[in-house]
Structure to design on (116 residues):
């Protein structure tokens, strides 16, 4: 005779797991979730779609200086977010786009007065 699996009840103090669709983050879009909710800085919309490396760097600098959510120094937060975007784009990033974003790193260093 097989033993039946015993059902256990959730205690009153244990956290309830949400099964609601709107509360869940799509696992394929986790990096987008990080970009929106990260404490690194509040980004201007469309910052990484700009065509000018200087414009991208200037936008990141403005965001880093204005953000109250960042924990690190402004330069570190801006560079961190730019690197995160480049790294998470991976092979899906077009070579021309990657060149623009890599040049934006150089521009960002110039705007913050950091030598390479």
């Amino acid at each position: 005779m097989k033993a039946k699996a015993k059902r256990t009840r959730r205690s009153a103090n244990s956290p309830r797991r949400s099964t609601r669709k709107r509360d869940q983050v799509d696992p394929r879009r986790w990096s987008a979730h990080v970009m929106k909710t990260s404490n690194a800085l509040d980004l201007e919309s469309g910052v990484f779609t700009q065509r000018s490396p200087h414009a991208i760097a200037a936008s990141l600098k403005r965001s880093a200086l204005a953000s109250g959510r960042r924990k690190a120094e402004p330069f570190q937060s801006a560079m961190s977010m730019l690197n995160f975007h480049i790294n998470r784009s991976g092979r899906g990033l077009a070579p021309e786009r990657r060149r623009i974003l890599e040049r934006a790193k150089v521009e960002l260093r110039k705007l913050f007065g950091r030598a390479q």
